[in-house]
# Entry
Amino acid sequence: MDLPEIKIFDNLSNEKKAFVPIEPGKVKMYVCGVTVYDLTHIGHARVFIFFDVVQRFLREVGYDVKYVRNHTDVDDKIISRAAELGEDPLALSQRFIDELDSDMGRLGVANADVEPKVSTHIPQIVSMTETLIEKGLAYEKGGDVYYRVRSFEGYGKLSGRKLSDMEAGRSGRVDEPTEKEYPFDFALWKSAKEGEISWDSPWGKGRPGWHIECSAMAGEHLGHNFDIHGGGRDLIFPHHENEIAQSEGTHECSFSNYWMHVGMVNTAELDSDGNKIERKMSKSLGNFWTTRDVLKGYHPDAIRLFMHTSQYSKPITYAEENLEEATLRTAYFYETLSRIDETLERGGIAKNQTVDAGELMPEFSDTISNFSDNFIMALSDDFNTPKAIAVLGEVAKIGNEITQSKKKPKPDAMRTMYEVKKCMAQAGRSLGILEREPNQALIELRDLRVNILNLDPKMIESKIAERNAARANKDWALGDTIRDELDALGVEIMDGSDGTTWRIKFG
Ligand SMILES: [Zn+2]
# Structure
Protein backbone atom coordinates (compact mmCIF):
# COMPACT_ATOMS: atom_id res chain seq x y z
CA MET A 1 0.00 0.00 0.00
CA ASP A 2 1.30 3.46 -0.88
CA LEU A 3 1.56 5.68 2.15
CA PRO A 4 -0.43 8.91 1.79
CA GLU A 5 1.28 12.29 1.91
CA ILE A 6 0.72 13.56 5.42
CA LYS A 7 1.14 17.14 6.58
CA ILE A 8 1.67 18.10 10.19
CA PHE A 9 1.65 21.52 11.78
CA ASP A 10 4.90 21.55 13.72
CA ASN A 11 4.98 23.92 16.69
CA LEU A 12 8.78 24.22 16.60
CA SER A 13 9.05 25.60 13.07
CA ASN A 14 5.54 27.04 13.31
CA GLU A 15 4.57 25.72 9.91
CA LYS A 16 2.63 22.93 8.31
CA LYS A 17 5.24 20.53 6.95
CA ALA A 18 5.22 17.35 4.89
CA PHE A 19 5.68 14.45 7.27
CA VAL A 20 8.92 12.60 6.50
CA PRO A 21 9.63 9.88 9.03
CA ILE A 22 13.22 9.20 10.07
CA GLU A 23 12.89 5.58 8.94
CA PRO A 24 10.61 5.06 5.92
CA GLY A 25 7.29 3.47 6.90
CA LYS A 26 7.91 3.82 10.62
CA VAL A 27 6.68 6.39 13.12
CA LYS A 28 8.08 6.89 16.60
CA MET A 29 5.81 9.02 18.75
CA TYR A 30 6.05 10.21 22.35
CA VAL A 31 3.13 11.83 24.17
CA CYS A 32 3.23 13.26 27.70
CA GLY A 33 0.78 11.48 29.93
CA VAL A 34 -0.68 12.44 33.27
CA THR A 35 0.56 12.97 36.82
CA VAL A 36 -1.41 10.17 38.37
CA TYR A 37 -2.68 11.49 41.72
CA ASP A 38 -6.37 11.90 40.85
CA LEU A 39 -8.98 10.94 38.24
CA THR A 40 -8.41 12.27 34.73
CA HIS A 41 -10.46 15.22 33.53
CA ILE A 42 -11.98 15.95 30.17
CA GLY A 43 -8.89 17.99 29.15
CA HIS A 44 -6.69 14.91 29.56
CA ALA A 45 -9.29 12.89 27.66
CA ARG A 46 -9.03 15.29 24.73
CA VAL A 47 -5.26 14.80 24.48
CA PHE A 48 -5.55 11.01 24.81
CA ILE A 49 -8.36 10.75 22.28
CA PHE A 50 -6.56 12.93 19.77
CA PHE A 51 -3.30 10.99 19.84
CA ASP A 52 -5.33 7.78 19.76
CA VAL A 53 -6.69 9.00 16.41
CA VAL A 54 -3.15 9.84 15.26
CA GLN A 55 -1.89 6.35 16.04
CA ARG A 56 -5.03 4.63 14.68
CA PHE A 57 -4.89 6.57 11.43
CA LEU A 58 -1.14 6.11 10.89
CA ARG A 59 -1.51 2.36 11.42
CA GLU A 60 -4.64 2.21 9.24
CA VAL A 61 -2.79 3.73 6.26
CA GLY A 62 0.13 1.36 6.69
CA TYR A 63 2.70 2.87 9.05
CA ASP A 64 4.48 0.80 11.61
CA VAL A 65 3.94 2.90 14.75
CA LYS A 66 5.74 2.82 18.08
CA TYR A 67 3.72 4.91 20.52
CA VAL A 68 5.12 5.78 23.94
CA ARG A 69 3.04 7.59 26.57
CA ASN A 70 4.35 8.02 30.08
CA HIS A 71 2.84 8.07 33.56
CA THR A 72 4.31 10.56 36.00
CA ASP A 73 4.22 8.45 39.13
CA VAL A 74 6.71 10.45 41.22
CA ASP A 75 5.86 14.10 41.81
CA ASP A 76 5.22 16.71 44.54
CA LYS A 77 1.44 16.40 44.13
CA ILE A 78 1.58 12.61 44.46
CA ILE A 79 3.79 12.83 47.53
CA SER A 80 1.54 15.33 49.29
CA ARG A 81 -1.70 13.49 48.37
CA ALA A 82 -0.17 10.20 49.58
CA ALA A 83 0.88 11.85 52.85
CA GLU A 84 -2.68 13.20 53.34
CA LEU A 85 -4.13 9.74 52.79
CA GLY A 86 -1.40 7.87 54.66
CA GLU A 87 -0.80 5.81 51.53
CA ASP A 88 2.44 4.70 49.88
CA PRO A 89 3.02 7.18 46.99
CA LEU A 90 3.72 4.47 44.42
CA ALA A 91 0.63 2.52 45.51
CA LEU A 92 -1.43 5.70 45.15
CA SER A 93 -0.06 6.41 41.68
CA GLN A 94 -0.66 2.80 40.58
CA ARG A 95 -4.24 3.09 41.79
CA PHE A 96 -4.76 6.15 39.59
CA ILE A 97 -2.99 4.50 36.62
CA ASP A 98 -5.62 1.75 36.91
CA GLU A 99 -8.42 4.35 37.09
CA LEU A 100 -6.97 6.11 34.04
CA ASP A 101 -6.84 2.82 32.11
CA SER A 102 -10.43 2.13 33.00
CA ASP A 103 -11.72 5.58 31.91
CA MET A 104 -9.65 5.68 28.73
CA GLY A 105 -10.62 2.09 27.93
CA ARG A 106 -14.29 3.09 28.11
CA LEU A 107 -13.52 5.94 25.69
CA GLY A 108 -11.98 3.47 23.24
CA VAL A 109 -8.46 4.85 23.78
CA ALA A 110 -6.01 2.01 23.26
CA ASN A 111 -3.01 1.62 25.53
CA ALA A 112 0.26 2.93 24.10
CA ASP A 113 2.87 0.38 23.02
CA VAL A 114 5.06 1.42 25.95
CA GLU A 115 3.80 3.24 29.05
CA PRO A 116 6.93 4.00 31.04
CA LYS A 117 6.90 5.32 34.60
CA VAL A 118 9.38 7.58 36.37
CA SER A 119 9.90 5.12 39.22
CA THR A 120 11.27 2.49 36.83
CA HIS A 121 13.59 4.90 34.96
CA ILE A 122 15.65 6.40 37.78
CA PRO A 123 19.03 5.04 36.48
CA GLN A 124 18.43 6.63 33.06
CA ILE A 125 17.43 9.92 34.72
CA VAL A 126 20.51 9.93 36.97
CA SER A 127 22.82 9.13 34.06
CA MET A 128 21.36 11.92 31.92
CA THR A 129 21.71 14.38 34.78
CA GLU A 130 25.37 13.35 35.23
CA THR A 131 26.04 13.97 31.53
CA LEU A 132 24.46 17.41 31.73
CA ILE A 133 26.69 18.29 34.71
CA GLU A 134 29.78 17.04 32.84
CA LYS A 135 28.88 19.23 29.89
CA GLY A 136 28.48 22.30 32.06
CA LEU A 137 24.72 22.45 31.37
CA ALA A 138 23.76 21.61 34.95
CA TYR A 139 25.10 22.17 38.47
CA GLU A 140 24.60 20.76 41.92
CA LYS A 141 23.74 22.89 44.95
CA GLY A 142 23.18 21.26 48.30
CA GLY A 143 21.90 17.94 46.95
CA ASP A 144 19.69 19.58 44.27
CA VAL A 145 20.68 19.68 40.61
CA TYR A 146 19.58 22.49 38.31
CA TYR A 147 19.68 22.96 34.57
CA ARG A 148 21.67 26.06 33.53
CA VAL A 149 19.28 27.49 30.94
CA ARG A 150 21.61 30.31 29.90
CA SER A 151 24.15 27.74 28.71
CA PHE A 152 21.77 26.13 26.22
CA GLU A 153 21.76 28.22 23.12
CA GLY A 154 18.36 27.21 21.80
CA TYR A 155 16.46 27.82 25.05
CA GLY A 156 13.07 29.30 24.18
CA LYS A 157 12.94 28.09 20.57
CA LEU A 158 9.73 26.08 20.99
CA SER A 159 7.72 28.54 23.06
CA GLY A 160 9.19 31.66 21.47
CA ARG A 161 10.05 33.01 24.92
CA LYS A 162 13.29 34.90 25.36
CA LEU A 163 15.09 34.84 28.68
CA SER A 164 15.58 38.60 28.45
CA ASP A 165 11.79 39.12 28.21
CA MET A 166 11.17 36.71 31.05
CA GLU A 167 13.67 38.63 33.19
CA ALA A 168 11.96 41.92 32.38
CA GLY A 169 8.60 40.34 33.23
CA ARG A 170 9.63 39.31 36.70
CA SER A 171 11.47 42.47 37.81
CA GLY A 172 10.03 44.05 40.91
CA ARG A 173 8.70 40.79 42.34
CA VAL A 174 9.94 39.46 45.61
CA ASP A 175 12.11 36.43 45.04
CA GLU A 176 11.75 33.21 46.91
CA PRO A 177 14.96 32.15 48.61
CA THR A 178 16.75 29.85 46.18
CA GLU A 179 20.11 28.26 45.62
CA LYS A 180 19.75 28.62 41.88
CA GLU A 181 22.37 30.58 39.95
CA TYR A 182 19.66 32.10 37.82
CA PRO A 183 15.92 32.35 38.49
CA PHE A 184 14.86 30.43 35.36
CA ASP A 185 17.14 27.45 35.94
CA PHE A 186 14.98 24.42 36.67
CA ALA A 187 15.41 21.35 38.85
CA LEU A 188 16.67 18.06 37.39
CA TRP A 189 17.06 16.40 40.78
CA LYS A 190 15.54 17.33 44.13
CA SER A 191 17.08 16.27 47.43
CA ALA A 192 14.69 14.29 49.60
CA LYS A 193 13.00 15.82 52.62
CA GLU A 194 12.74 13.71 55.76
CA GLY A 195 10.48 10.69 55.22
CA GLU A 196 9.90 11.32 51.49
CA ILE A 197 10.20 8.66 48.83
CA SER A 198 13.75 8.81 47.45
CA TRP A 199 16.45 7.07 45.46
CA ASP A 200 20.25 7.08 45.83
CA SER A 201 22.19 9.32 43.50
CA PRO A 202 25.68 10.85 43.25
CA TRP A 203 24.10 13.94 44.95
CA GLY A 204 22.58 12.03 47.84
CA LYS A 205 19.06 10.72 48.31
CA GLY A 206 16.44 12.42 46.20
CA ARG A 207 14.05 12.21 43.29
CA PRO A 208 13.83 13.59 39.76
CA GLY A 209 12.40 16.98 38.86
CA TRP A 210 9.41 16.80 36.55
CA HIS A 211 10.87 17.58 33.10
CA ILE A 212 13.84 15.20 33.06
CA GLU A 213 11.64 12.08 33.10
CA CYS A 214 10.27 12.63 29.59
CA SER A 215 13.72 13.27 28.11
CA ALA A 216 15.05 10.10 29.74
CA MET A 217 12.06 7.90 28.88
CA ALA A 218 11.75 9.13 25.29
CA GLY A 219 15.49 8.52 24.81
CA GLU A 220 15.25 5.06 26.34
CA HIS A 221 12.29 3.86 24.26
CA LEU A 222 12.51 5.86 21.02
CA GLY A 223 16.15 6.92 20.69
CA HIS A 224 17.77 10.36 20.80
CA ASN A 225 15.94 11.60 17.71
CA PHE A 226 12.39 10.52 16.89
CA ASP A 227 9.44 11.65 14.79
CA ILE A 228 6.56 13.12 16.79
CA HIS A 229 6.33 14.57 20.28
CA GLY A 230 2.93 15.58 21.56
CA GLY A 231 0.99 16.76 24.54
CA GLY A 232 -1.43 19.42 25.71
CA ARG A 233 -0.81 23.02 24.70
CA ASP A 234 -0.16 23.92 28.35
CA LEU A 235 3.01 21.80 28.21
CA ILE A 236 4.80 23.92 25.59
CA PHE A 237 6.33 26.02 28.33
CA PRO A 238 8.11 25.13 30.46
CA HIS A 239 7.80 21.35 30.12
CA HIS A 240 8.56 20.79 26.44
CA GLU A 241 10.98 23.69 26.26
CA ASN A 242 12.91 22.06 29.10
CA GLU A 243 12.73 18.62 27.50
CA ILE A 244 14.41 20.05 24.40
CA ALA A 245 17.13 21.70 26.51
CA GLN A 246 17.80 18.45 28.37
CA SER A 247 17.72 16.04 25.42
CA GLU A 248 19.49 18.19 22.85
CA GLY A 249 21.96 19.31 25.51
CA THR A 250 22.76 15.70 26.36
CA HIS A 251 22.79 14.08 22.94
CA GLU A 252 23.72 17.04 20.73
CA CYS A 253 21.19 16.12 18.07
CA SER A 254 17.69 17.21 17.21
CA PHE A 255 15.19 15.74 19.72
CA SER A 256 11.76 15.44 18.06
CA ASN A 257 11.20 16.31 14.39
CA TYR A 258 7.53 17.34 14.80
CA TRP A 259 5.90 18.93 17.84
CA MET A 260 2.10 18.70 18.11
CA HIS A 261 -0.03 20.28 20.84
CA VAL A 262 -3.69 19.79 21.63
CA GLY A 263 -5.79 22.83 22.56
CA MET A 264 -7.45 23.35 25.91
CA VAL A 265 -11.01 22.58 26.93
CA ASN A 266 -13.03 25.66 27.89
CA THR A 267 -16.40 25.73 29.56
CA ALA A 268 -19.40 27.81 28.57
CA GLU A 269 -21.00 29.60 31.50
CA LEU A 270 -23.26 32.51 32.25
CA ASP A 271 -21.83 35.56 34.00
CA SER A 272 -23.77 37.53 36.64
CA ASP A 273 -25.56 39.50 33.88
CA GLY A 274 -26.63 36.30 32.18
CA ASN A 275 -24.19 36.67 29.28
CA LYS A 276 -22.54 33.59 27.88
CA ILE A 277 -18.81 33.51 28.61
CA GLU A 278 -16.09 30.96 28.08
CA ARG A 279 -13.64 30.09 30.79
CA LYS A 280 -10.62 27.87 30.94
CA MET A 281 -11.58 24.69 32.74
CA SER A 282 -9.73 24.53 36.01
CA LYS A 283 -9.88 22.70 39.27
CA SER A 284 -9.48 25.86 41.32
CA LEU A 285 -12.40 27.61 39.57
CA GLY A 286 -14.62 24.60 40.19
CA ASN A 287 -15.71 24.42 36.51
CA PHE A 288 -14.18 21.05 36.19
CA TRP A 289 -15.36 17.68 34.82
CA THR A 290 -13.73 14.34 35.33
CA THR A 291 -13.80 11.88 32.44
CA ARG A 292 -15.87 9.61 34.65
CA ASP A 293 -18.53 12.26 35.28
CA VAL A 294 -18.84 12.98 31.59
CA LEU A 295 -19.17 9.25 30.84
CA LYS A 296 -22.11 9.10 33.24
CA GLY A 297 -24.12 11.39 30.96
CA TYR A 298 -22.76 10.75 27.49
CA HIS A 299 -21.90 7.84 25.26
CA PRO A 300 -18.16 7.31 24.56
CA ASP A 301 -18.77 7.66 20.82
CA ALA A 302 -20.58 10.96 21.42
CA ILE A 303 -17.71 12.26 23.56
CA ARG A 304 -15.20 11.33 20.87
CA LEU A 305 -17.37 12.80 18.13
CA PHE A 306 -17.65 16.02 20.15
CA MET A 307 -13.83 16.17 20.37
CA HIS A 308 -13.52 15.49 16.63
CA THR A 309 -15.70 18.49 15.74
CA SER A 310 -12.80 20.88 16.44
CA GLN A 311 -9.35 21.01 14.92
CA TYR A 312 -7.13 19.56 17.63
CA SER A 313 -4.87 22.55 18.11
CA LYS A 314 -7.78 24.93 18.81
CA PRO A 315 -9.65 25.26 22.09
CA ILE A 316 -12.93 23.40 22.38
CA THR A 317 -15.98 24.41 24.41
CA TYR A 318 -17.42 21.86 26.79
CA ALA A 319 -21.10 22.78 26.87
CA GLU A 320 -24.18 20.64 27.25
CA GLU A 321 -25.56 21.68 23.86
CA ASN A 322 -22.34 20.59 22.14
CA LEU A 323 -22.39 17.17 23.78
CA GLU A 324 -26.10 16.96 22.99
CA GLU A 325 -25.44 17.67 19.33
CA ALA A 326 -22.72 15.00 19.26
CA THR A 327 -25.16 12.54 20.89
CA LEU A 328 -27.79 13.18 18.20
CA ARG A 329 -25.17 12.72 15.50
CA THR A 330 -23.94 9.47 17.09
CA ALA A 331 -27.50 8.16 17.27
CA TYR A 332 -28.04 9.15 13.65
CA PHE A 333 -24.94 7.22 12.54
CA TYR A 334 -25.89 4.10 14.50
CA GLU A 335 -29.54 4.30 13.39
CA THR A 336 -28.33 4.48 9.80
CA LEU A 337 -26.12 1.42 10.33
CA SER A 338 -28.93 -0.44 12.05
CA ARG A 339 -31.34 0.33 9.22
CA ILE A 340 -28.77 -0.72 6.62
CA ASP A 341 -28.46 -4.11 8.37
CA GLU A 342 -32.23 -4.40 8.50
CA THR A 343 -32.70 -3.48 4.84
CA LEU A 344 -29.89 -5.76 3.68
CA GLU A 345 -31.51 -8.56 5.62
CA ARG A 346 -34.83 -7.81 3.96
CA GLY A 347 -32.99 -8.14 0.65
CA GLY A 348 -31.68 -11.56 1.67
CA ILE A 349 -28.20 -10.62 2.91
CA ALA A 350 -27.24 -11.71 6.42
CA LYS A 351 -25.14 -9.50 8.72
CA ASN A 352 -21.73 -10.92 7.91
CA GLN A 353 -22.35 -11.62 4.25
CA THR A 354 -20.62 -9.51 1.61
CA VAL A 355 -22.17 -7.81 -1.41
CA ASP A 356 -19.17 -7.43 -3.66
CA ALA A 357 -20.62 -7.73 -7.13
CA GLY A 358 -22.93 -5.49 -9.12
CA GLU A 359 -23.26 -1.79 -9.85
CA LEU A 360 -23.61 1.06 -7.40
CA MET A 361 -26.63 3.34 -7.69
CA PRO A 362 -25.41 5.85 -10.33
CA GLU A 363 -26.40 8.96 -8.34
CA PHE A 364 -24.22 7.88 -5.38
CA SER A 365 -21.43 6.12 -7.17
CA ASP A 366 -18.94 9.05 -7.16
CA THR A 367 -19.35 9.86 -3.48
CA ILE A 368 -18.85 6.24 -2.52
CA SER A 369 -15.96 5.53 -4.87
CA ASN A 370 -14.11 8.65 -3.70
CA PHE A 371 -14.84 8.15 -0.01
CA SER A 372 -11.64 6.42 1.02
CA ASP A 373 -9.38 8.93 -0.77
CA ASN A 374 -11.33 11.90 0.59
CA PHE A 375 -11.36 10.56 4.13
CA ILE A 376 -7.63 9.81 4.09
CA MET A 377 -6.95 13.20 2.54
CA ALA A 378 -8.84 14.91 5.38
CA LEU A 379 -6.87 13.19 8.13
CA SER A 380 -3.61 13.54 6.17
CA ASP A 381 -4.06 17.29 6.33
CA ASP A 382 -2.80 17.75 9.89
CA PHE A 383 -5.40 15.29 11.23
CA ASN A 384 -8.35 17.43 10.22
CA THR A 385 -11.05 15.54 12.09
CA PRO A 386 -13.89 18.05 11.40
CA LYS A 387 -13.30 17.51 7.68
CA ALA A 388 -13.14 13.74 8.17
CA ILE A 389 -16.48 13.80 9.99
CA ALA A 390 -17.99 15.80 7.13
CA VAL A 391 -16.77 13.18 4.63
CA LEU A 392 -18.27 10.45 6.81
CA GLY A 393 -21.54 12.44 6.94
CA GLU A 394 -21.83 12.36 3.14
CA VAL A 395 -21.86 8.56 2.94
CA ALA A 396 -24.07 8.17 6.02
CA LYS A 397 -26.59 10.45 4.32
CA ILE A 398 -26.70 8.07 1.35
CA GLY A 399 -27.34 5.09 3.62
CA ASN A 400 -30.02 7.03 5.42
CA GLU A 401 -31.75 8.00 2.19
CA ILE A 402 -31.80 4.48 0.73
CA THR A 403 -33.11 2.89 3.91
CA GLN A 404 -36.07 5.28 4.12
CA SER A 405 -37.81 3.17 1.49
CA LYS A 406 -39.77 0.23 2.84
CA LYS A 407 -39.75 -1.56 -0.52
CA LYS A 408 -37.58 -4.57 -1.20
CA PRO A 409 -34.24 -3.07 -2.24
CA LYS A 410 -32.96 -3.49 -5.81
CA PRO A 411 -29.52 -5.04 -6.41
CA ASP A 412 -27.81 -1.68 -6.96
CA ALA A 413 -29.29 -0.38 -3.70
CA MET A 414 -28.05 -3.48 -1.89
CA ARG A 415 -24.56 -2.99 -3.26
CA THR A 416 -24.62 0.73 -2.39
CA MET A 417 -25.77 0.09 1.20
CA TYR A 418 -23.09 -2.50 1.66
CA GLU A 419 -20.43 -0.04 0.46
CA VAL A 420 -21.79 2.69 2.74
CA LYS A 421 -21.37 0.31 5.64
CA LYS A 422 -17.78 -0.38 4.61
CA CYS A 423 -16.98 3.34 4.31
CA MET A 424 -18.47 4.02 7.75
CA ALA A 425 -16.43 1.19 9.21
CA GLN A 426 -13.23 2.62 7.72
CA ALA A 427 -13.97 6.04 9.23
CA GLY A 428 -14.83 4.38 12.52
CA ARG A 429 -11.52 2.52 12.74
CA SER A 430 -9.49 5.73 12.38
CA LEU A 431 -11.70 7.92 14.53
CA GLY A 432 -12.43 5.30 17.17
CA ILE A 433 -16.22 5.56 16.78
CA LEU A 434 -19.03 3.38 15.34
CA GLU A 435 -17.20 0.22 16.37
CA ARG A 436 -20.12 -1.24 18.35
CA GLU A 437 -22.95 -3.43 17.15
CA PRO A 438 -25.46 -0.73 16.06
CA ASN A 439 -28.46 -2.01 18.01
CA GLN A 440 -26.38 -2.46 21.14
CA ALA A 441 -25.07 1.11 20.81
CA LEU A 442 -28.63 2.39 20.36
CA ILE A 443 -29.69 0.68 23.59
CA GLU A 444 -26.70 2.25 25.39
CA LEU A 445 -27.65 5.64 23.99
CA ARG A 446 -31.26 5.08 25.01
CA ASP A 447 -30.31 4.18 28.58
CA LEU A 448 -28.09 7.24 28.97
CA ARG A 449 -30.90 9.38 27.62
CA VAL A 450 -33.39 7.86 30.03
CA ASN A 451 -31.05 8.93 32.84
CA ILE A 452 -30.59 12.46 31.55
CA LEU A 453 -34.33 12.95 30.96
CA ASN A 454 -35.00 11.43 34.36
CA LEU A 455 -37.43 8.91 32.91
CA ASP A 456 -38.41 5.68 34.60
CA PRO A 457 -38.14 2.68 32.24
CA LYS A 458 -40.68 0.79 34.39
CA MET A 459 -43.23 3.57 33.90
CA ILE A 460 -42.62 3.40 30.14
CA GLU A 461 -43.04 -0.38 30.09
CA SER A 462 -46.26 -0.19 32.09
CA LYS A 463 -47.67 2.51 29.78
CA ILE A 464 -46.88 0.24 26.84
CA ALA A 465 -48.66 -2.66 28.55
CA GLU A 466 -51.67 -0.40 29.17
CA ARG A 467 -51.70 0.61 25.52
CA ASN A 468 -51.45 -2.99 24.33
CA ALA A 469 -54.40 -3.91 26.58
CA ALA A 470 -56.43 -0.99 25.18
CA ARG A 471 -55.65 -2.09 21.65
CA ALA A 472 -56.59 -5.67 22.46
CA ASN A 473 -59.98 -4.26 23.57
CA LYS A 474 -60.15 -2.34 20.31
CA ASP A 475 -60.04 0.92 22.28
CA TRP A 476 -57.95 2.62 19.61
CA ALA A 477 -58.54 6.10 21.02
CA LEU A 478 -57.03 5.20 24.40
CA GLY A 479 -54.15 3.43 22.65
CA ASP A 480 -53.40 6.59 20.67
CA THR A 481 -53.65 8.78 23.76
CA ILE A 482 -51.04 6.70 25.53
CA ARG A 483 -48.80 6.76 22.47
CA ASP A 484 -49.09 10.58 22.38
CA GLU A 485 -48.31 10.82 26.10
CA LEU A 486 -45.12 8.82 25.62
CA ASP A 487 -44.30 10.78 22.50
CA ALA A 488 -44.44 14.01 24.51
CA LEU A 489 -41.83 12.55 26.86
CA GLY A 490 -39.54 11.84 23.91
CA VAL A 491 -40.35 8.13 23.85
CA GLU A 492 -41.20 6.53 20.53
CA ILE A 493 -42.91 3.14 20.46
CA MET A 494 -42.56 0.69 17.65
CA ASP A 495 -44.95 -2.20 17.01
CA GLY A 496 -43.15 -5.12 15.42
CA SER A 497 -43.70 -8.81 14.89
CA ASP A 498 -41.96 -9.55 18.24
CA GLY A 499 -44.16 -7.13 20.16
CA THR A 500 -43.74 -3.50 21.06
CA THR A 501 -40.32 -1.96 21.66
CA TRP A 502 -39.46 1.60 22.51
CA ARG A 503 -36.69 4.04 21.96
CA ILE A 504 -35.83 7.59 22.85
CA LYS A 505 -36.25 9.92 19.95
CA PHE A 506 -33.00 11.58 18.90
CA GLY A 507 -33.63 14.81 17.03
ZN1 LIG B 1 6.42 15.06 29.40
Notes: The domain at 7-263 is CATH 3.40.50.620 (Rossmann fold).
